[in-house]
Amino acid sequence: MRWEALREAGPGMSMAGQDARLEARPEGEGLRLVFHGRLEAGAAARLWPEATRRAARARPLILDLAGLTALDTAGAVLLLHLEHLAGEARWAGMPPGPLQAVLDRTRQALAAPPPEPPLPLPWLGLIGQATIERGQGMLAQVAFLGEALVAGLGTIRRPWRLRLSEMLRHLDEAGLRAFGLTLLLGFLIGLILAFQSSIPMRQFGAEVYIPNLVGISLLRELGPLMAAVVLAGRTGSAYAAELGTMVVNEEVDALRIMGIDPVAWLVLPRLLAAMLVMPVLALLMDLAGLLGMAAVMATLGFPPAGVIAQLQSWVQLKDLLGGLFKAAVFGLAIGLVGCRAGLGAGRGPRAVGDAATAAVVGGIVSIVLLDGIFAVLFFRLGL
Amino acid sequence: MEPVVRVENLAARFGGRTIFEHVSFEVRPGEVFIILGGSGSGKSTLLKHVIGLYEPAEGRIEVLGEDIDTLRGEARQALLRRIGVMWQSGALFGSLTLAENIEVPLEQHTALPAEARALVAQAKLGLVGLADAALRLPAEISGGMAKRAGIARAMALDPPILFLDEPSAGLDPITSAGLDALIRQLARELGTTFVVVTHELQSILAIGDRCIMLDKDAKGMIAEGDPRRLREESENPVVRAFFRREVLA
Ligand SMILES: Nc1ncnc2c1ncn2[C@@H]1O[C@H](COP(=O)(O)OP(=O)(O)OP(=O)(O)O)[C@@H](O)[C@H]1O
Ligand SMILES: [Mg+2]
B53 and A251: CB-CB below 8 Å? Predict the structure, then answer.
């Protein structure tokens, strides 16, 4: 309504002809800026550079509005900015009524000072802050492991409290639905490994030993590791996103107020599912990889029976079991990192995305760290 | 009579930013107590402090005679089963149907058999006019329906005290009036105490026995008392503007 009225305030409606004009007249020591016509967004933008340049040097500044026929918020902002630049300005010829109201309303709206940005830290402070944050993050992760452990022990005492249906759903989503991807990845990795190693091995006439090489690296390292990457990408991120959404929607608070421990209710079924599913995924990865390797061997002229014999002579049961054990621990770590990222989500929709990212990055980093620890451990134990 | 909720000199801060301080009030049994205030004044924050989700930066909170912040284990469970909360966003569990949502607190706090739980859930849904939506998921109902389902879930255990965060925001006037009638009825017939966050003027005047008003700029309480008297008598310009729907100068 008000804006309509403003439009009509100007006589003769030819827009181009009525567009604002700026006239600068020296007056005593200072400067008088006279505005004519319709000072609206387009005109304000056009006049901005010239007006601010002139106003900055004018002491005192007189803003003469007698010739104005229309004013919108952008125009008012320009005028107020000029006043601010000059430090001290006198107003002249302001037509009363709607134009004055626009100016007053804009002035009032700008009166509240914008929030001050926090002081930037010096670089040493930034390093310190990052260190503290990382440290606290790690501590929180350990504390979360403790919470999950307590919840798990509580569930052992009262096993009927475990939400079985929920766990089955997660077993299905983390496991069954990942089978296709796992098989495909495993097969390709076995294929590539065997093919790449066949090139140097052939120079020494040692192609027979390709199954030894590929078999060991698959069972001990690559099978569990690749399965873990699949789990982190598919399931860790899903855990974080799902729990993060629940936090944002106050569902987690609602659980707490019902006296239900969110860790026991939400985290435990997911953790168990991730832990149970990982050895299976790793085993599938192993088998598919060996199949891929066998395919390459077949093209090199080694029949499957020979490959199997070679594997049997070299690979031991403990290689397989060690790998599967590692896989279960990786599953636990990915589940923990994912759930913790979700439950720790902040407020607002971005929080969920951040949580999912943190889950995948944190999951993969923790797998690699754990794998390093396992390498040393298994070596020491002579496994 | 012992107050149901007692808040003494409470302060809430997030990362050094004070939301409010020096907040003290008491809620008496069987009354409908209203927390008023503009958007962002800290009403939901105050509610979350009272129900023990946030730790007070300063001050003390007692609910049903117990210090909710230091309570642990069984005692805490016993207290939690005697309060119901309806959340501003509904906070229904997305993977469960409405009926299952209401059964969650029943499952946690009672040994009722599945059949009985289902009946209680159905009854509560009927009470808020959602009987035919029992099997739907939260994503499949409207915002107002989610609010009502949230109230039904808060009432699942017939708690003596109910906390409602903006129960009638987003409801049409008829549904909202029905809700007000329900609140009054429960307060009168069962002696249920209500702590309600709202800014619906009509609702406040219809159901409120007493109220406090928070203000963002004052960072605390600016009024306390009977809303009808505040409307007539308050000298505070913010309070007056609120009750008379005026624009603040
Ligand atoms: N967990 C939190 N972390 C940081 N700041 C918060 C948090 N919760 C609330 N706040 C801040 O506290 C202030 C009050 O928020 P609160 O949700 O209590 O407002 P409200 O009075 O309920 O408003 P509305 O009527 O819009 O629901 C806001 O400025 C908000 O940014
Ligand atoms: Mg709120």
Answer: no
Mean pLDDT, to the nearest integer, of B167-171? 81
Under 8 Å between Cβ of A181 and A230: yes
User: Residues A84, A46: one domain?
Assistant: yes
- Residue B108 belongs to some domain of the structure: yes
Q: Which residue has the tokens 């006049």?
A: A47
Residue A181 falls inside a structural domain: yes
Over residues A10-37, the pLDDT tens digits come to 333 334 445 788 888 888 888 898 998 8
Domain boundary among A59, A92, A111: A111
For chain A, positions 228-247, list CB contacts with chain B under 8 A: 245-246
Confidence category of residue A228, pLDDT binned at 50, 70, 90: very high
Query: Are A76 and A178 in the same domain?
Result: no
What CATH number has the domain bearing residue A81?
3.30.750.24
Do A159 and A69 share a domain, yes or no?
no
> Is A131 domain-assigned?
no
Q: Do A257 and B85 touch (CB under 8 A)?
A: yes
Q: Check pLDDT > 60 for residue A2.
A: no
Of residues B48, B81, B93, nearest to A259 (C-beta): B81
The H or E element that residue B109 is part of is helix B98-109
Contact call for residues B27 and B46 (beta carbons, < 8 A): no
Lateral strand order in the sheet of B220-225: B83-86, B161-165, B193-197, B32-37, B210-215, B220-225
Number of domains in chain A: 2
Residue A118 inside a domain? The answer is no
Q: Is the pLDDT of residue A367 over 90?
A: yes
CA–CA–CA angle A227, A232, A235 (5° rounding)? 100
What span, in angstroms and rounded, lies between the C-alpha atoms of A49 and A52? 5
- Is any ligand 1 atom within 6 A of the Cβ of residue B50? no
Q: Which amino acid is at A103?
A: L
What value does the mean pLDDT of chain A take?
86
Range of the domain at B112: 90-158
Handedness of CA B241, B242, B245, B249 (dihedral sign): positive
Residue B27 lies in a domain: no
Q: How far apart are CA B100 and CA B106, in angstroms?
A: 10
Could you report the predicted ipTM of this complex, rounded to two decimals? 0.73
- Does residue B233 contact residue B243 with C-beta atoms inside 8 Å? no
Dihedral sign, CA of A341, A342, A347, A348? positive
CA Rg value for chain A:
35
